[in-house]
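Re-run with default settings, no changes from the original entry. Doing this only to confirm the output is reproducible before filing.
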Amino acid sequence: MAHSIRISYSACHGCVNCIKSCPTEAIRVIAGSITIIKDLCVDCGECLRACDRKALGIDDDDWDLIRAHGNVAAIPDPTFFAQFGSYWYPELAKEALSQNGIDLLVEDIEDAFDLSAYAAARTIERMSKDQLPVISTYCPAVVRLIQLEYPELLSRLIVVENPLEIAAEMWRKRTKSFAPLTLIVPCPAKITMVRDPVGRQPSPIQHIVSMRKVVHALMASGVKVSSDTPRGKSDTKRFAEWASRGGESRHITRFASKDLRVIAVSGLRNTMDLLEQLELGRLRGVDFVECRTCDIGCFGGVAAPESRFLAHMKHRDIETNWQLSPDRQDHLKSMFENEKLWRLSEPIPSRQRLPLSSDLPEAMNRLKQMKAIFAELPHIDCGACGRPSCKAMAEDVAREQGEITDCIFKLREDISSLANQIISLADLQPNALKRIQPGKSIKVNAQRG
């Protein structure tokens, strides 16, 4: 497994803020050095929010190097169009980037998001009540979180491909081009979606760059756009809706032939709470669940340069055109029935935590050790040992990846015990110097030969 978090070891001061923010306990800070357990990381970006030392960053590609190779064909995440002070209308952003040799594949993106919503609506309508609700696969961090923490919900993940991947396939099919494609993303999760795909074949996208880099480069170039660029209702806004909480659900319900009951949540803790409720079977009567690990949806991505609140405000200023012409509806129906770009090609597997040992008897023995060690720990999850919890500490010790004295409380107990022993030893005297107390006698056992 892979992750897309870059570590700057020289910038880390061992504050352990990151380990407390990670929902899957994937981070350790030992001897002032950060370690990320790849098999546990879901690339939610919470550790980046917690680190104010810039010791953690996004491991994306070099934007300047990509541009140096000539014109760039780029697929922007829906949040992209709300990141500018002057160009928040999609048409203006497209024109501004074209002056820098960047071609935003807006038409393919529009087709892809419409097809994804259409396919989701048709899929939900064909499912039985026992199979509902289904969960969106749009947020890669949510998919990876379910793989790791909620494997019983894997069968509820809707089998519809991420529309960003669909757009790339559509562009390649339409142009018959093998030129490199660049995805502009607001979070590390969508980088890993391309580099380490689940439920799909290798991605048709070659490069991934953070939105912050692209926006800063565009603003620094000082480009100007024409004043007569059309504004107002935009077909592009339909896919831009997916950037905010509930946008995907609104798009899907527009294509449904019946009323759908949907729930949309954003934020990591809210997402985990909802998944727990779903796992307990408490969402009966719901048809579709939309989860985003970032606050306010993808506007809250850690690689988005604009304030999520300002971006959301700009986003609301553009009126969405929900009216599809008959030709457009026929076009979507044809793509749904004749092309299978919208369907995930493989089942999404669970992600098993690393076993304590590959040998079963040894693993059982280490499990007993872990429980015994955990029972001795203070259970306050302070993080001073460099682990996110006492349970994680006990597991590391059982794996022989730490000592129980890494816990400051156990170390203090050992020091206190040692100090008491030293005091007791200091009071001892050699037998030859001991004085006999009055009224007492020394018994000497003589052994006869």
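The domain at 359-427 is CATH 1.10.15.40 (3-methyladenine DNA Glycosylase II; Chain A, domain 3). The mean pLDDT is 85.
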